[in-house]
Every structure is written in C-alpha cells, then in structure tokens.
TrEMBL record:
Species, as recorded: Lentinula detonsa
One GO MF term attached to the UniProt entry: mRNA 3'-UTR AU-rich region binding
Short name of any one Pfam family annotated for the protein: ADH_N
Protein name, as recorded: Probable quinone oxidoreductase
Keyword Oxidoreductase belongs to the record: yes
C-alpha cells in the first residue's frame, strides 16, 4: 500500500477566543493529526449551522484554542484508515469507503480544506445525491429524521407545531411531517417566509409577530392542543409551548436561536402529564447501525424527492464569506441552508 502524502497546512475557519463575529478568522493551521482509524477528506462544501454560532459565542465550550469551527462538510476521500482492525470490521466495510469516493461528514472542527475524522462520522453519499446537496442536507436532515423517530414518533393523524418552520431544519421538518401524515403547524416572522414554508408542506403558518400564536394553535386544534412541539427558538418561545400542548403531549426543545432556555422545575409537566426532552442528533446516531440506518434513509428520501434541500445561498471560502454566513443566520433573514464552496468542481 502506498502512503498518502498530505499538504503541511490547511486553511480553516477558526477562533482564538469566543466572541462576536470578528473573532472568526480564516487561518493557516498545521495539517490535522491523522489517527489510524481516520478517513482523510478533501473538503468541497461546508454546511453552516446555528451550532457554529453557539461555539463561536461561547454558549457551547471549546477545550482549547485555536479551535476550528463547524460540524458539517462534504468532499472526497483521499486516504483510508490504516488500522487493520478497522479495515476488517464488517461495519466499516458496509460503508463502501474508497479513495476518490464522496462522503458527507458530521464532526466538530471540520470547516477547513482537509479534515481527518473517525470513519464512523463519514456518511457515504448514496442514491445518486450530489456532494453539494449532501453537504447541505446532512446535519439538518439527520436531525429531522432522528427527532421525528425518537424524540417524538410522528405518525399519521398527529398535529405537530414546528417553530422556525422556514429555517433549514424547519423546512425539512415540514416536509417530513407531511410525508408521515401529520398536520404541520409552523411559526415564522414574515409572509414571504410563510409562503416558502407552505411550499414545503406546512398546513398552517402563524406569523408570530402579528398573530397570537397560542390562540391560533388552539383555534386550529379545536382547543385540544398539539401532540408535539419542536422548538428551535428556545428562550423566547419556551413558556408558551406549555399552553399549546395537548394532554400527554411532548415538548422537544431543539435549540437556542433566541438564547438558552432557563432552568425549570419538573412540576411544570404535571398539569397535563407532559414529556420534555432536549436531544441532540449526535446522541441518537452513535453506533454503526444507527449511522447506516439514518444515513441511507436520508439520501434515499432526498433522491426520491421526499425531502428537498432548499439552499438559501452559497458563500465564498473567505473570512468575509464565513462571517457573512453566520451574520445572516443569526440575523433571522435566511430560509433554508447556507453553504460555503471550498473547492472548484
Ligand atoms: N439539537 C440538535 O441536534 C439540532 C440540530 C440542528 C439544528 N438545531 C437547532 O434548530 C434550530 C434551527 O436551526 P437552523 O440551522 O435550521 O436555523 P434556521 O431555523 O435556519 O435559522 C434560525 C431561525 O430562527 C428564528 N429565530 C427566532 N428568534 C430568533 C432570534 N432571536 N435570533 C435569530 N433567529 C431567531 C428565525 O426565523 P423566523 O424568522 O421564522 O423567526 C431564524 O431564521 C436552531 O436552534 C438550531 O440550534 C438543533
């Protein structure tokens, strides 16, 4: 076997301290350490996620600096693991990795030109999906699929409420909810965003800046409330969710776009026997079977047109491009996915 030769350095979006958008820099850093169980990938596309801004601002901690941002990329495998135990593992072999093959990756610290990641974090792109769409759809797609399966199992006849319905995750939840036979209610800020959400399957979209969300949800559900709420807004919407859930309903706290939810007493769940969970996709998809199941399902559903990945904008691979992408995302103006193009086709 020939040993792969890598460049000495990478170009990466990284921070030396947490803070505002100005701490995000494009840095030249040493090539990452390649472990024997790692795949090395030349990155083509970077998916921008809200979580990148939580890390940049310090809501989620880094243990050391400089810290490379980001948790979603796609590109081409340039080196396979060298550990014979990994190479002979049937779970590894099932993924069909090969040099030159395309993968989408969900792993922290991956917004750079080359990455070295544990093989389990790389999803072989199947079902004819492009590297661009896989890089745009992986994290939010796996989140929608695993949350609708495991946080609350969405089924035919359910009525669900999805906040941030016109966002990257929200548009996928709208489509998946409809596909599973649920009535999907969403909230968003503008009429334009509401139209996009409806075009992706939302049945009712409430303009929370103009309408009373609780009143409208209770009207739509004849006073009963919804089976589940998926709430990516966090601080601003958390309290009102309790008024909109039906007896035995489930509140899935998905994220913190408006800030972290303050601590609460479990007694708050008692009046309607509600369930509350605060999951992350990364703890639903851990084992090789889970990764294979959800990865294959995602690419199959994209390929079949069940899930359309709405790309809001492509940004250049520059410091200004990366800063602008995070600014646009936290500024609440975006609909769908933000992508950064790293290499030319
Ligand atoms: N737990 C997980 O594993 C997981 C995985 C992926 C995403 N998430 C979470 O899901 C949520 C959506 O993520 P996304 O990447 O798809 O983002 P996004 O929904 O495309 O963008 C965020 C949207 O949140 C709304 N928003 C409401 N209050 C806001 C505020 N104070 N500041 C900024 N935005 C506000 C805005 O939409 P409106 O104009 O409609 O209000 C904004 O466009 C985030 O909270 C994210 O952290 C969680």
């Amino acid at each position: 076997m020939t040993t792969a030769v890598f460049p000495e350095t990478i170009e990466a979006f990284a921070i030396n301290k947490t803070g505002g958008i100005e701490v995000l820099e494009k840095m030249t850093l040493p090539f990452p350490k390649v472990e024997p169980g790692h795949l090395v990938i030349k990155v083509e596309w970077i998916g921008v996620n809200f979580i990148d801004t939580y890390y940049r601002q310090g809501l989620y901690p880094y243990s050391s600096f400089p810290a490379v941002l980001g948790k979603e990329t796609s590109g081409e495998i340039v080196a396979l693991p060298t550990d014979p135990e990994v190479l002979n593992n049937p779970d590894f072999q099932r993924m069909g990795y090969q040099v030159g093959g395309k993968v989408a990756v969900d792993f922290l610290g991956t917004h750079s030109t080359y990455i070295s990641v544990p093989w389990i974090k790389a999803y072989t792109i199947t079902h004819g999906v492009s590297t661009r769409i896989a890089g745009a759809g992986l994290v939010q797609g796996l989140t929608a699929l695993s949350f609708f399966e495991e946080a609350y199992k969405v089924k035919k006849g359910d009525t669900i409420l999805v906040h941030t319905i016109a966002g990257g995750l929200g548009l996928l939840m709208a489509q998946l909810g409809k596909h599973l036979g649920a009535t999907v209610i969403g909230t968003t800020s503008t009429k334009e965003k509401a139209e996009i959400a409806k075009a992706h399957g939302a049945d009712h979209v409430i303009l929370y800046k103009e309408e009373d969300t609780v009143k409208r949800v209770l009207e739509i559900t004849n006073g009963v409330g919804v089976d589940a709420v998926f709430d990516g807004v966090g601080k601003d919407t958390f309290e009102s969710n309790f008024e909109m859930l039906r007896r035995k309903g489930t509140l899935v706290s998905v994220g913190n776009a408006s800030g972290a939810v303050p601590p609460m007493s479990p007694l708050k769940l008692l009046p309607k026997n509600l369930k509350l969970c605060r999951p992350t996709m990364n703890h639903y998809i851990v084992t090789p079977d889970e990764a294979y199941f959800y990865g294959d399902k995602l690419f199959e559903m994209i390929s079949a047109g069940v899930l359309r990945i709405n790309i809001f904008k492509e940004y250049p691979f520059t410091q200004e491009g990366a800063q602008q992408a995070q600014k646009d995302l936290t500024g609440g103006k975006t609909t769908g996915k933000l992508l950064i193009k790293v290499t030319q086709d």
